[in-house]
Design goal:
This protein folds into five domains: 96 residues, no CATH class; 68 residues, no CATH class; 36 residues, no CATH class; 72 residues, no CATH class; 136 residues, Jelly Rolls (Sandwich), CATH 2.60.120. It contains no helices and 41 strands.
Length: 498
């Protein structure tokens, strides 16, 4: 049966002893206590069953379940909904202060996440805020962002160990993609990693973990610093070692205090100022090549528009000037000096000096005696020259001749093309006057000389030749009875005159 106890004031149920308790129970040991209003307990309440109610509070702090099966709201110090437990999770209005570990799938916050311990999870997503690592003054260790691979063996070379990526959600153009990334990828089975700086899925800078080599536009640099393509340096580049390459191209100056060695070409559109040595095959310049007081020395070719030197220019090969060769001092050559125009103070030439320009006199020297024994016209030693097409030449041959006995001789000029007019002047004895014969026929003057005695006498041939095509020109002679010797020292000069 039900028993009701109604009072107009307060109803206090109190035990007499401090160690005594007030117990509500039925015969089975369990009783339901239903309180329609508020229940205020000043001591401790021990319950083995359930409490059915919508609010527990102490002052302005409370735990409320405002609707049946609804959310559980916690109000602290009069601030509502500091924590709200819902069917999907927990929502906190203030800061999280955790001294232990947070283990979960995602930590999503529009504010700060502060932890003195570890934060372990799948992803940490910061939508609009920042991730800031602050260094405490006096700390002995710096902050670290660490990517750890739990695999004990490398199974795939090139696989990512970790990366920092910048991703765009752009719906136009190339669409959503990773626009830039800083990646660490496995480079070998020992766990070494390469660092790759990428944009648009292309590696721009690579740092190899095994060697430390750095590549720009080069993912496999073989040298400490390797650039594929062109590099631009606005300041000064100082190189202590060697520069090895195909071409060094500069719009300014290349300055070297040591050796500048190029296996290919060294091309400069400005000046090249070198205080050391230049070692190479050719030095080719469209401007000026200037030497200091110590001179310019080359074992190969020096080619240029102008070669200016305050001292000697020494060449073991050929000196060729397509324009002019001008000097206020000496030109000394053991080889050939080839020039269209030569303006010289002194020329000391131990070889031949010749040229194809107008006014350049060429000398053909008969270095050994030539023996004339043919009864028909034959060349006299090496006394001859090659006339260029469309050019005119004047020539003169001087020959001492020594018959071995009395004989009848004839001298002429041979030419296989063009028009030639020449004159033969000859002595029959050493003291006889010169007999003169003029001809325009190749290898024939129509006259002979009856030579007596065995003393030397002289034969001179002068002439002019023009040919529309190339022509071979040579001095010829014949003898009827005895041999005739043309000694060494005979010569032929020829000069282009038009």
């Amino acid at each position: 049966m039900a028993i009701y106890k109604r009072v107009a004031g307060n109803l206090i149920i109190e035990s007499i002893g401090a160690a005594n308790t007030v117990t509500f129970q039925n015969t089975t040991g369990v009783a339901n206590v239903i309180i329609t209003g508020d229940l205020s307990v000043s001591g401790n309440a021990s319950l083995t069953g359930n409490i059915s109610g919508d609010k527990l509070f102490n002052g302005t702090t409370s735990i409320e379940i405002q609707t049946a099966s609804g959310n559980a709201n916690i109000t602290v110090g009069g601030v509502s909904n500091v924590a709200v437990f819902t069917q999907t999770g927990l929502n906190l209005t203030g800061a999280y202060s955790v001294t232990g570990n947070i283990i979960g799938g995602n930590v999503l916050t529009a504010g700060l996440v502060s932890a003195t311990g570890n934060v372990t999870g799948g992803n940490v997503n910061v939508t609009t805020g920042n991730i800031v690592l602050s260094y405490t003054s006096g700390a002995t260790t710096a902050q670290v962002i660490r990517f750890t691979d739990a695999n004990t063996a490398v199974t795939t070379l090139g696989a990512n160990i970790g990366s920092v990526e910048w991703v765009t959600a752009d719906a136009t153009g190339l669409g959503a993609r990773t626009t830039a990334a800083l990646r660490a990828v496995y480079s070998d089975a020992n766990g070494n990693a390469n660092i790759l700086l990428q944009t648009n899925a292309t590696t721009r800078i690579a740092v190899l973990g095994a060697t430390g080599n750095v590549g720009i536009a080069n993912v496999a640099p073989l040298h400490t610093f390797a650039v594929t393509g062109n590099s631009y340096i606005s300041g000064t580049e100082e190189v202590i070692g060697n520069i090895t390459g195909g071409n060094i191209i500069t719009g300014g100056r290349v300055t070297a205090t040591g050796n500048l060695v190029s296996g290919a070409n060294l091309v400069a559109s400005g000046y090249a100022t070198i205080t050391g040595n230049i070692t190479g095959g050719n030095i080719i310049s469209v401007g000026v090549i200037s030497g200091s007081a110590s001179g310019i020395s080359a074992t190969g070719n020096i080619r240029g528009g102008n070669i200016n030197s305050d001292s000697f220019i020494s060449a073991t090969g050929n000196v060729y000037a397509g324009g002019g060769l001008e000097t206020q001092g000496n030109v000394s050559a053991t080889g050939s000096v080839l020039a269209a125009t030569a303006i010289l103070g002194n020329a000391n030439v131990t070889g031949n000096m010749f040229g194809t320009g107008i006014g350049v006199e060429n000398v053909v020297w008969q270095s050994v005696a030539a023996n004339i024994s043919s009864a028909s016209m034959a060349n006299v030693g090496s006394l001859g020259f090659f006339a260029l097409a469309g050019s005119s030449y004047k020539f003169e041959a001087y020959m001492p001749v020594v018959p071995s006995a009395g004989t009848t001789t004839a001298f002429s000029t041979y030419f296989d093309a063009g028009t030639c007019s020449y004159t033969v002047e000859s002595q029959t004895t050493a003291v006889a006057g010169f007999a003169m014969a003029t001809s325009t026929t190749s290898a024939s003057t129509g006259t002979t000389q009856v030579m007596t005695g065995t003393t030397a006498r002289t034969v001179r041939i002068t002439g002019i030749i023009y040919s529309a095509g190339n022509a071979n020109v040579a001095v010829q002679a014949q003898t009827s009875a005895a041999n005739v010797v043309v000694p060494s020292g005979s010569y032929l000069t020829y000069t282009r005159i038009g």
